[in-house]
Each structure stands twice: as C-alpha cells, then as structure tokens.
Specification:
Blueprint: E1 2-3, H1 9-22, E2 26-28, H2 36-45, E3 54-59, H3 66-80, E4 85-90, H4 99-111, E5 115-121, H5 125-134, E6 139-143, H6 153-161, E7 165-166
Parallel strand pairs: 1-2, 2-3, 3-4, 4-5, 5-6, 6-7
Length: 167
C-alpha cells in the first residue's frame, strides 16, 4: 500500500499513479492531507479497475457533529471521484467530540454504503474498547504508529483478542 501523507498536487498524483502501475493496490489518504482530489484523479487515470484498488480515507476529527462528519465524507467521495471508500477512519481521537456520535455516524455511513468498513486511527485500548461499544458494526482496524521502537504490545494483544486488525 501507499500512504499519501505530505504528498500534494502533481507529486501526489504521480506517486499514486506510478504506485498503481507498479502493482500497489491500497491507497491511504485523509481529509487532513488535502490531497484527496489528486488521489482520486490518479485512481481514475490508472489502468486498474476500481474494484481492485482498496482506498482508505480519514475523517478530520474537527468534524465533531454527525452533520459535519456526513458532509465531510460526501466531500471526500466527491474529491476522490468514488461512490464509496473501502475503509473510513476517524483520524485522531478528539477529546471535544462525543465518541458515541462519532462511532454511530461512521457505522451509519457503512450501512448506507458510503464505506465498506470503518475503523479508527491513533486510538489506545481504552478508547478503542469504548468505540466498539458505540459502533453497531465491527471496527475493522486501528491504524497506529507501530514499529520496533514503539511496539504497543498491549494494544496489539487487545486487537488480536477482539478481531480488530492493527494497521
């Protein structure tokens, strides 16, 4: 997969198009990256069927109300030129946002087929556990920083025991 953080404009377009041409099949973007339009154009222009590309985008956590979240997802889909994304994440936990509203809205977006799966990003065990209580669909993943110098073993163990992929 290809992450598009810090890629902009033509550089983003070229990177995504080249990655798809080389066989990459997962593209990760976010509202906060401000590059969904370039990602969408590259996907549309690549010689790859849409159903063969797994697209992840993330909701800006400042979109705290159900209405703001819905409007932002509609805007993301428009920029990406897609009817649905494969995975929709909340980018960061926002202590000012109501987690129940966030997770209920994301689950509703999945039921409405604006996304195939929902997940979270940068959630620890406690917040992930609460998110699972509020979502009426499974949480597919928690996308976090994870490497030998920051192994997050407790989070990994929780995810393994609760059928949540750790990305």
């Amino acid at each position: 997969g290809l992450g598009t953080w810090e890629l902009e404009g033509k550089q983003c377009y070229d990177a995504v198009k080249t990655a798809l041409d080389l066989g990459y099949r997962h593209i990760d973007t976010a509202q906060l990256y401000e590059n969904e339009w370039a990602v969408g154009r590259a996907i549309a222009d690549a010689d790859v069927d849409r159903e063969d590309v797994f697209v992840t985008t993330k909701i800006n956590p400042m979109n705290r109300s159900a209405r703001a979240m819905r409007e932002s997802v509609d805007a993301s889909l428009d920029k990406l030129g897609l009817e649905t994304v494969d995975l929709l994440l909340i980018h960061w936990p926002n202590p000012l946002a109501d987690l129940e509203t966030t997770m209920t809205t994301m689950a509703d977006l999945q039921v409405e087929e604006k996304t195939r799966h929902i997940g979270v990003s940068n959630f620890g065990v406690d917040r992930l556990e609460k998110a699972q209580e509020y979502a009426h669909v499974p949480i597919a993943t928690d996308q976090v920083q994870f490497h030998p110098f920051y192994p997050q073993r407790e989070l990994l163990q929780y995810c393994q025991q609760n059928d949540v992929a750790l990305t």
